[in-house]
């Protein structure tokens, strides 16, 4: 992926990693469209960063995705990068007498269904571009799950597997398939306390390292964008510390 001169759609771009990378990509010389649910946040981003375009989208609303994809293609015919970043997290307690799966169903809809559907809607357009990229945010938890958040971890493992298969399907096309697998980062994905957790990687440091990796294709192996802080999770099983890491997560 070139780090400048693109037209990029970023879902989940109003907060956290999505917002930070949307701003960094905009500042690197790309046309950036940010999609999110909350219009007030889209307005705030547009005002703070002139040139970024905000478009309202609730990715859980499956019926709206095709219409949104059509509108994006009409407004931005040079769109050549889809960055599927929207995601939510939650916890489930399967030791409880009654297990509430409401959040789990929302997590699957947001983290899996919307990613597959929006990608399917825009890939025909991306394939027509001379060079294009589909990038999806997964997680280090795709490789070692967080026991208190089993569905979230499983959605990211699904995406990792899906992207591997998709990369093979698209290898004869103009579309590069990238997986962005973050470690534990100081965002509010897991609640306000996560943004201040000293165990988490600072968001600015994560953003800067990702941008440096994207700028140097030699740092990307097998289509995976991995900062140093996540590699112990990516290679936990290979390196023989999977069970130890899983036990650590159980006590996190």
UniProtKB/TrEMBL annotation:
Q: Which UniProt keywords apply?
A: Oxidoreductase
Q: Which residues form a coiled coil?
A: none
Keyword Nucleotidyltransferase attributed: no
What Gene3D superfamilies does UniProt report for this protein, alphabetically? NAD(P)-binding Rossmann-like Domain
Supply the Pfam families for this chain.
adh_short
- What domain of life does the native source organism fall in? Bacteria
Domain (Ketoreductase) ranges: 6-184
**Family of this protein:** Belongs to the short-chain dehydrogenases/reductases (SDR) family.
Q: What is this protein called?
A: SDR family oxidoreductase
